[in-house]
């Protein structure tokens, strides 16, 4: 795999009229909190009330106190917002949110980008909530400038980024030489760059799209980030990685805590993520570079990736390490549906012998369907360089026209357990293709005998409800039902739909119970 670098706007202006039309009343701050209001028609010398609002978000950020809520009226705000004042655990967060059903837009059109900078940024602050904004049009054509839609940096805790729409954040410079390894743009970025971590961060319900990222990522947690939840986001149509959990890039002062960790990546939908035609990936190849992951863990640890949909990307999900002698570890990938990705469904291990390893990870109860669509023979599961002590169980893998199911082109592969999976391929059991420790085997039986893998696995049609319509629930007669290995320590409590994970005699194979 070739990789270069990191893979109606205005609401009603009269609240009473809105209530008369049946709109919900605006939310209220807690009894101990204070309410402030900002409007494009306001003035920063006003009182900051609903009747006499401020004009700028920055004035509100410089004034708000712990436990307060800044209600932002609909309209366009063409200024950056830098939040450095904190809420508190006792009084509550400082919350910046849209007013009622109105949509405030923070628009970066014409604004300069200074080094690495967020259109909205939270620097060394804690107990902050940013909710219900559209954040857009923050761009540059200058190398070494990094525009970010929402940027959280330094240290802090108790930060929530909720229900925001982030789009058209771009660096359109054409990289050359060493610039291929640089950072270019992000939709949402969390960089733990201090000895104290960024902890307790929630990124939920956001939409990120039309981002020109170069060698960077759509949504990323990097460095000293400890305890995070990336949930229920929609990430699509961007030119590099969708969601990334990163370690060992030198973001934090010490390697000892330079890993995003103790995280949850759940309920996200990620699609149309591709590095093809991205100049940061060098000369365009005949089939494209196909190096951008929908969901990626690069050096992170102790994280669960579950109940996500990842499709029409270059790679569905990857757990790997780009840094030699460093490992991505203790990642559980379970109950995800991964389909129609160009190179492979799930990848693990370093992408060449100069990279790091994947160790002590679990890939369980996923449904992988017809990935490997562009003829690169990545199969449904791509086992790369230096994989150790990983568990791969209870997965459905249905091959594309390539007929490749598992592709492992490296001999440095020790202690991995592969069993209780269900496989299917257009060429049938005898014509299915497998590469294990760099040796090609044709046919399921030949692969089992030669490798010792999959002694309890099946080769059969999984009988999806409607695969043409991408409904990967199981028909009542599916051989995957009750055919898995019920290890409650790793399969999780719920399937892709949030239903109890075990309902019959044993767990089903695949994402659907």
Automatic annotation (TrEMBL):
Location of the Right handed beta helix domain: 149-367
Chief site of localization: secreted
Signal peptide start and end residues: 1-31
Statement: the UniProt record of this protein carries the keyword Signal: yes
Oxidoreductase listed as a keyword: no
Subcellular location: Secreted
Top-level taxon of origin: Bacteria
SMART domains: PbH1
Protein keywords: Secreted, Signal
NCBIfam families per the UniProt record, alphabetical: choice_anch_Q
PANTHER family: PECTATE LYASE (EUROFUNG), SECRETED SUGAR HYDROLASE
Protein name: Right handed beta helix domain-containing protein
Organism field: Paenibacillus konkukensis
Organism placement in taxonomy: Bacteria, Bacillati, Bacillota, Bacilli, Bacillales
